[in-house]
Amino acid sequence: MTIFQFPRFSPKAAKIWEEIPVEFQEILLDNVLCSHCRDAVRIVDYSGSVVSGDVLLKGKCAICGHDVARLVEGS
């Protein structure tokens, strides 16, 4: 049985992430490149922080469990 964690966001990242419509959030979460799987996968057990005004999601590949990241560019 796999247990997933709730996302952890810095306050600033949470504010930016909440401004993105839920349907686009799901698209972003489902399209993260995994270098191990060599394909687009879903990110799980992720956290969010702000880097140069953009949200950086860091987490695990839902398929193989390797570390993955996705940069969500602002504006």
Shape: globular
Radius of gyration: 12 Å
Number of domains: 1
Structural class: alpha+beta
Poorly predicted regions: none
Number of helices: 2
The largest β sheet comes out as:
4 strands, mixed
Side-by-side strand order of the widest sheet: 1-4-5-6
Give the integer mean of the pLDDT values.
91
Alpha-carbon distance between the two ends: 39 Å
The run of helices and strands is EHHEEEEE
Give the tally of β-strands. Answer: 6
User: What is the helix content?
Assistant: 10-25%
How much of the polypeptide forms β-strand, as a percent range? 35-45%
Describe it:
It is a single chain. This protein has 75 residues and is an alpha+beta fold. It has one domain. The chain has helices spanning 11-18, 22-30, and strands spanning 8-9, 32-34, 39-41, 43-51, 54-61, 67-72. The strands form two sheets. A four-stranded mixed sheet has the order 1-4-5-6. Strands 2-3 form a two-stranded antiparallel ribbon. Strand 5 and strand 6 form a beta hairpin. The longest helix is centred in the middle third of the chain and has 9 residues, at 22-30. The mean pLDDT is 91.
Task: Please specify the SSE layout and strand pairing.
Elements: E1 8-9, H1 11-18, H2 22-30, E2 32-34, E3 39-41, E4 43-51, E5 54-61, E6 67-72
Parallel strand pairs: 1-4
Antiparallel strand pairs: 2-3, 4-5, 5-6
